[in-house]
Design brief:
By secondary structure, the chain is of the alpha/beta class. It contains 9 helices and 14 strands. Bound molecules: zinc ion.
Length: 256
């Protein structure tokens, strides 16, 4: 059985370890820092088999060099970004067979947060980096609102039961913003209570299912009348389409 475990890094990053209950092999997703990963490998006697990168930001790739000093393993990452440590550049539709973890992941190109960002999805799981967050989405550092809208659309097309493993613990702040956009959305208030309890117990709120995201994440709800009306009010004009709605709420979130 596939097992996915978080390793906490920096203030709020999650590095994900993909493994299997039958073996000690793990693939490491977005090791921004090597130390907590090496510590976990030692503790659990894991055997690293691959590194998967979603995008080039230092808090996602910063630990790769140190890991490679100890383990000669392939590094998969976006072909469209300049990451010197990547040995296997990937494009949309490429498959990544992690034999020892018993899972095959398929690559989605999801530009928006960065120009060449990737997500990896497999049966029941998606690693979304800083593109789709639980209850939010990444800042548009290199991409356009249209690109982010299309990227989120690709992820939203995965099965509703898909668990979303993102790169940061941002859920509570994202939900506070979601509630400001949709004060009448009870699914958001309910999720705030659930996540508050998890955080009080120092538990991750990640992963969440895509079904939960569709009910509460304003960036997946740009087609909903309530989100559109809130964006219209914030912009002080009638927005024409979902991309404009996404652009306005993304900017609104930046200053929230
Ligand atoms: Zn990032």
């Amino acid at each position: 059985m596939v097992e996915i475990k978080p390793v906490k890094a920096f203030r709020d990053n999650y590095i994900w370890l993909i493994g299997s209950s039958e073996s000690h092999h793990v693939a490491i997703v977005d090791p921004g820092d090597a130390s907590p990963v090496l510590e976990r490998i030692r503790e659990q006697e894991f055997s690293p088999m691959a590194i998967l990168l979603t995008h080039h930001h230092p808090d996602h790739v910063g630990g790769v060099g140190k890991l490679l000093e100890q383990y000669k393993i392939p590094v998969y990452g976006p072909a469209a970004e300049d990451i010197p440590s990547v040995t296997h550049p990937l494009r949309e539709g490429d498959n990544l067979i992690l034999t020892n973890a018993g899972i095959t992941l398929t690559v989605l190109e999801v530009p928006g947060h960065t120009a060449g960002a990737l997500a990896y999805h497999g049966p029941g799981v998606a690693f979304t980096g800083d593109t789709l967050f639980t209850a939010g989405c990444g800042r548009l550092f290199e991409g356009t609102p249209a690109q982010m809208h299309s990227s989120l659309g690709k992820l939203a097309a995965l099965p509703d039961s898909t668990k979303i493993y993102c790169g940061h613990e941002y859920t509570m702040a994202n939900l506070a913003f979601a509630l400001a956009v949709e004060p009448g959305n009870h699914a958001i208030s309910y999720r705030i209570e659930t996540c508050r309890k998890l955080r009080e117990a120092d538990q991750p709120t990640v992963p969440a299912t895509l079904a939960e995201e569709k009910l509460t994440n304003p960036f997946l709800r740009t087609g909903e009348v309530s989100v559109k009306q809130a964006a219209n009010r914030h912009a002080g004009r009638q927005l024409e389409n979902e991309i404009d709605v996404l652009a306005v709420i993304r900017q609104w979130k930046d200053t929230f």
